[in-house]
Structures are given as C-alpha cells and as structure tokens.
Write a structure and sequence with these properties.
single chain, mainly alpha, 2 domains, 5 helices, 61% helix
C-alpha cells in the first residue's frame, strides 16, 4: 500500500493535485470529478469484459485502483489507514459465512447471516486519528 500511495503522491505533486492534511470530505467539484472518472473507468471495464479484451480489462482495473488510491489521498487517508479499513471490511465480509458456507439470495448476492459483523470503521479510524 505504501508504494501505491507514494507513486500516486508523485503524480499528484507533478499535476498539482491537492490532498487534505487530515481525513475529511472534499468540495463537490472535487468529489464530482472523482466520481465521473471512476464511472468512466467502470464503463471501460464493462466494455472490455463484453469484448473479451484482456489487455483493456487489466488497464481498466489498474486505472480504477490508481483513481481509488488518489481519492483516498485527497480525502486525507494514509496507506496504513486504508489498509486498516480494508482489513476491517475483510473481517466483516468473512463473517458472512454461515457454518463455513456462503448463502446467497435469489439474485446471487451474498446474504448476511446472524454471524455477520458489520465493519467497525469508527474504531479503526480512532486508531489513526
């Protein structure tokens, strides 16, 4: 995660892209731009998958990750903070297993059994602020 943030930091500096010093929201213009760029990459991903174009699939995934790291930096997240958030979300997602098995609804979405523990992001963020 550190290397990805460092690389994105180099890009942000070269292109005069500002980031918050502390965790928080962005201006509507800034988060709107990020949203539109991510939506564009999602469309490129969808097209690449529909056309079975492996190179474009990989390109879209890489671009989305690059954008997400940039969004995290702009919101004031650190690499350690993002990694902790991801660990907490992973723990939560794994708690969706019911007796070691995945249960899905009629649409194929994973159901949340009684064992589900939502991510406690408040506690995660407290340890980083």
């Amino acid at each position: 995660m550190e290397k990805l943030f460092k690389q994105r930091g180099e890009f942000n500096e070269a292109f005069s892209i500002n980031s918050r010093a502390h965790l928080g929201n962005l201006s509507e213009a800034s988060f709107g731009l990020e949203y539109r760029m991510l939506a564009e990459e999602l469309e490129e991903y969808l097209t690449a998958c529909m056309e079975n174009d492996t190179i474009e699939i990989v390109d879209a995934i890489g671009d989305m990750l690059y954008l997400i790291i940039g969004v995290a930096k702009k919101h004031g997240m650190t690499p350690n903070m993002l990694e902790s958030v991801m660990n907490e979300i992973h723990q939560s997602n794994m708690s969706k297993l019911h007796n070691g098995k995945v249960v899905k609804d009629e649409n194929g979405k994973v159901s949340k059994p009684d064992t589900f523990n939502p991510p406690n992001l408040v506690n995660v963020l407290k340890s980083h602020i």
